[in-house]
Design a protein that fits this description.
Chain A: This is Uridine kinase. The complex is a heterodimer of chains A (about 475) and B (about 250). Chain A is α/β, with parallel strands linked by helices. Chain A contains 14 helices and 16 strands. Chain B is built from 6 helices and 14 strands. The model of chain B has no long low-confidence stretch (mean pLDDT about 90). The chains are: A alpha/beta (about 475), B alpha/beta (about 250).
Amino acid sequence: MESSVFATPGVGSATAVDEDSAMSMKGHYAPPWADVSIIGIAGSSGSGKSTISQAIVKKLNLPWVVILSMDSFYKSLDAEASRRAFRSEYDFDAPEAIDFDALVECLRDLKAGKRAEIPVYSFEKHARLERTTTIYSPHVLIVEGIFALHDPRVLDLMDMKIFCEADPDTCLSRRILRDVRERGRDIEGIIKQWFAFVKPNLKKFVDPQREVADLLIPRGIQNQVAMATVVQVIKQKLLEKSEDHTAALKRLEMGLQSEPMSEKVLVLDPTAQLRGMNTIIHDVETNSEDFIFYFDRIATLLVEQALNNIPFTSATITTPQGYTYNGLTRQGEVSAVIALRGGAALETGLKRVLHDCKAGRVLIQNNEKTNEPELHYLVLPKDIDKHEAVLLLDAQMSSGGSALMAVQVLLDHGVKMDRIVLATYSAGRLGLQRLTKAFPDITVVVGSVVQDAEERWVEKRYFRC
Amino acid sequence: MSAHPEKPKPAPVQCVGPEYRSESQKPTATVSTDVEFETVTVLPQTPQLIALLSKIRDRDTERGDFIFYSNRIIRLLVEEGLNHLPTVEHTVTTPVGRPYDGLAFEGKICGVSIMRAGEAMEQGLRDCCRSVRIGKILIQRDEETAQPKLFYDKLPTDIAQRWVMLLDPMFATGGSAIMAVEVLISRGVPEEHILFINLIASPEGIKNFATKFPKLRVVTAFIDQGLDEKNYIIPGLGDFGDRYYTM
């Protein structure tokens, strides 16, 4: 099957994060993937659904388009049914073979902007495998399968419904080729299956889906006009969504100038050393060795300060002389997530303080045309939802758009809001307010607060490119 | 100097944590004893600092962890110590061509470690001041008189023109530190140009020192309850040099 944008193998079941009640009181942030466009492509076996799906993905040429094959949702067969399947006497081409409940659940999660775990089905074993594939944050999801337009619950979630038409002879020939090459079947079995199940089902279940389709595509990908129309509609949808997201980011700013800064925003004390180091870092004349040296020093202080906000418990220890001391001990695991690429400039500081902490990485970039932050890459420690604290590191935060997105990503992966500590060298005042309005329970540790949005000059100087 | 162990006062206990948390959300711990000398700076008693001190005080902490966690505290001490050095207003141009009103560091510095435990603090000093000159002083207790005696010193020749960061992690009676300061003053270093950087101090040691050298600054992470009859700090952390180097 086609895999996901962000596959994190082995991740447990998706954890729903319901902090919304607290959020709606203050301000709300919805990432651009919160309302994924779902496109259904149905049609007889061999009608060219997957070829069309792949052609659409190729034409869109965006990283956030994911194909979800309904083959992943075949029900696992019991022993009896499995024996029939191996004799080619099991009807895979009837709606009963599909676990629509699981499909609906996945689609609803994705539509809500959450992570979904997609089952992996083995045609060799006629069973679901233990592992699942994770789909997270697609902007467009193409659901393709013989019965993509069959279940009314699925239809309700779809933004566009396509039915592929093809001549039954073509379908049979394609099916023979595919099943022999990809699914290890023999020709006799395939033909037996075709006349016993596939063909009768065509009339009974497949064809009626035409009635609910928005678009009928004859002749598959050779149909250039149909392809262009589909791509055009999707592009328009994405553009509207991007505009909505940017407007929502703007709305979060409104009325913030006059509001006081959240008490959970902690700015490093402007000591003589910090001011002196900041002067060196801001000086255009500073050479790279000095820049990196002083930035690492500040990064270390930032991480030290960030760690004052993680949970501790009282602990009595005994010294070598046998005296006791009532001190503190850290609870549970603390991990970090590096917001690339700026956050990587804080990694030396991180390692000086927590030499072996697990570190996830997330790459969010602003689209130069729309100025919308976009999620490009994500790898998180798999047990991150169980960590006592997660430090989110970035060198700079100006408007806060990427920070909002990074925090949302952590929430979507089960990290509780009050366990997130964002540490950044400098931050724009408005960006900070926007972030703490949308996520009031996170803690932010910042080196210095600046008035205007700044371009990301720190990482340029730190990495020297 | 006080060789008379006093009965330790009860140590102050308080809730430790960030201000935005209510008292009930913060765990309690024993924090540094207060002293009334304005030349003495104690690091802010943050939960992280208390947790680090708990680690290195714990007799079950292994050497690798002891070294790592003490280095973290020492770095914070050096960062705080450097704040007491002079600076001048200094405006620079930023990469985007704007002026930035900042500060420039003034004055040359050097480190002087009291052997051997003080040498364990050199890494932390170097982490903040890359190629700093480091002098060394060896002081040991004279077997016959039981008084500290200077055995060896090697100091930068221009030390009289420098600010000196004097390094010694454990400050019990203050005998060796007082002698080290006397050596520095005899080499022409003004008392007010000496910063004593220390991890754990006793109230007696701090008092002796601040009374004898009223212009010398002390930066410490924690002032403990007192001294026992063997002049070990209570509760202390044992022999720092042994735990860092040989145990």
